[in-house]
Amino acid sequence: MKPRGPALRSGRKSAFVASADAAARANDKFRGFPPACFRFLRDLAENNDRNWFEAHRDIFETSVLAPSHAFVNALGRAMRPNYPTVVFDPAVNGTGSMFRIARDVRFSKDKSPYKTNLGFRFWLSEEARAAKRVGLYVNVAATGVTVYGGAHGLEAHETAEFRNHLLRGKNGVDLQRILDRLGALGFGRHGDALQRVPAGFPKDHPQADLARYKDLMAVSPTIDVSVAGTPALIRACADFAKSMKPLNDWFQSVPSSGDMIKFRGQV
């Protein structure tokens, strides 16, 4: 389920990937995203073109890619006590946990070539990775860091499975309690929702409001840049991921859908 990173076209690494790998290995202990990383994202938002990016590629490689490589390894390990089968990959070329910063503009009116955020995906199992299903997503922006869990970008049949699951036993009550607990912790709720309860779903059902959602995510409070610039970011993200485990477990219990979070690039 789908975010797809582009496959490398040959076994030979480009100079860009090779230099990024070297920088990442030289800085494998996560020390935080440096101020230069957030400055790069802010400047990129104001200069979103290829000429500017190429002129600042050295900053991107040393201040963005290298700490990203270390971040993936550190957070993946930190989440294992609560997600023992979590899968992560520090590759920074789009095939691993880090999304490519280049945008796919083929079908977009916005032709800006680059994203102005960093996105990281973590799979809940090897099977989930093989099926392109992401379990947790971390967004790093110039304004701070957020962690996402739940279900995003569902296909029509998956949305139907979600709604059917709400009707079975106490599943709807359980999901409502999970969301309420997360709300009490400061998590937001995000998703594409209908204005009305969908046809065929009982309008008097206690969780009819949840059935309006085509997909449903919990979004953590924003972690301040002052924390994101330190090793403490790992514990902050891991704690948010732990808080969202009941939500991820609930969506994994939906029949035939598995751990079905599907992030397609920037959320």
Rg (C-alpha, Å): 19 Å
The largest sheet has its strands arranged as 1-2-3-5-4
Give me the secondary-structure category.
alpha+beta
Number of helices: 11
Tell me, briefly, the overall form: globular
Helix content range of the residues, please? Answer: 40-55%
Instruction: List unreliable stretches of 5+ residues.
Output: 1-20, 22-27, 257-267
Mean pLDDT: 86
Spell the H/E element sequence.
Answer: HHHHEHEEHHEHEHHH
Largest sheet: 5 strands, antiparallel
Provide a brief overview of the structure.
With 267 residues, the protein is α+β, with helices and mostly antiparallel strands.
Give an account of the 3D structure.
The protein is an alpha+beta fold and 267 residues long. The chain is built from eleven helices and five strands. It has helices at residues 15-26, 35-46, 50-55, 57-79, 126-130, 156-167, 171-184, 208-211, 225-228, 232-243, 245-252; strands spanning 118-122, 136-141, 144-151, 188-190, 216-219. The chain has a five-stranded antiparallel beta sheet. A hairpin with a 2-residue loop joins β2 (136-141) and β3. The radius of gyration is 19 Å and the shape is globular. The two termini are 15 Å apart. 38% of the residues are buried.
